[in-house]
Design goal:
The chain is mainly α. The chain contains eight helices and two strands, in the order ααααααααββ. Strands 1-2 form a two-stranded antiparallel sheet.
């Protein structure tokens, strides 16, 4: 019994030390000559996205009614719950918790690298999805746009800022934010499938329009927040050589220790 208690204590201590080391790593300055977390191109993309949202907004009502009424798109509605954040947060958290308390010094170097890569990426995925979701929820509360189910009574331009609840939480789309973050995470993990992954996650975000949970502009805004935030977080970590490393002149950071994984 005493030995089990001591093992539990040592596991908790190792977990606390791992968290402290990770937080300290985030607080250190970026390495010299590394790529910045936020680029001029990302700023231009953000401006373009805002322009697209403004241009698309007058057509929100027509697009919402048209797309949600098409019979051939009904099958795609079953995909919409793939955008629920818990499908990704819970596994990522579970993997990180399982690995954080390991006695890394007792592992062989190869195994330590493999577990380190898995732990770093699970932690990155968790915070990318969680933090981008928090940003979106703050925006929802501050903007307070009525959902499409009120389109016949309130129209697409009904806003009630600082009203909590589901009914006035349309802009931006939370599911789409999750899909943007997941799309960016998977695109970083599997660069060869980057285009397919981005298009697939965009389509899943698009299903939020089909189920009349969000307007098109909600989906565009949500996906953009999740995607850009996740890329910026990966680039921030790469500047500190945590989970990622940056390559001069390249937009997408590279997974740290990926080449040593196998």
């Amino acid at each position: 019994m005493t030995e089990q208690f001591q093992d539990r204590q040592s596991g908790i201590a190792r977990a606390a030390q791992s968290v402290i080391r990770f937080l300290r790593r985030l607080n250190v300055p970026a390495y010299p000559a590394t790529e910045p977390a936020w680029t001029h191109g990302m700023t231009m993309a953000s401006v373009l996205i805002v322009f697209v949202i403004l241009m698309l907004h007058p057509y929100d009502e027509w697009l919402s009614r048209t797309l949600s009424s098409h019979g051939y798109l009904r099958g795609a509605r079953h995909l919409t719950d793939i955008g629920l954040s818990q499908w990704y947060l819970i596994p990522a958290f579970a993997v990180a918790v399982c690995l954080i308390g390991i006695d890394w010094r007792a592992l062989a170097r190869t195994r330590r690298i493999q577990f380190g890569l898995i732990y770093a990426q699970a932690t990155f995925a968790f915070w990318a999805i969680a933090l981008s979701g928090i940003l979106t929820n703050i925006a929802k509360f501050m903007i307070g746009r009525a959902r499409p189910k009120f389109i016949d009574t309130l129209g697409p331009n009904a806003f009630s800022p600082f009203v909590a609840g589901y009914d006035y939480a349309s802009f931006p789309s939370g599911h789409s934010t999750t899909m943007g973050a997941v799309g960016a995470v998977l695109a970083l993990w599997f660069p060869r499938w980057r285009v397919v992954i981005i298009l697939a996650t965009m389509f899943i975000a698009f299903t939020r329009i089909l189920v009349r949970a969000h307007y098109p502009t909600d989906v565009v805004a949500g996906y953009s927040v999740g995607f850009l935030f996740t890329i910026a977080l990966a680039r921030f970590l790469a500047g500190r050589r945590t989970a990622f490393i940056s390559e001069q002149g390249r937009f997408w950071p590279k997974l740290r220790f990926r080449d040593n994984f196998w």
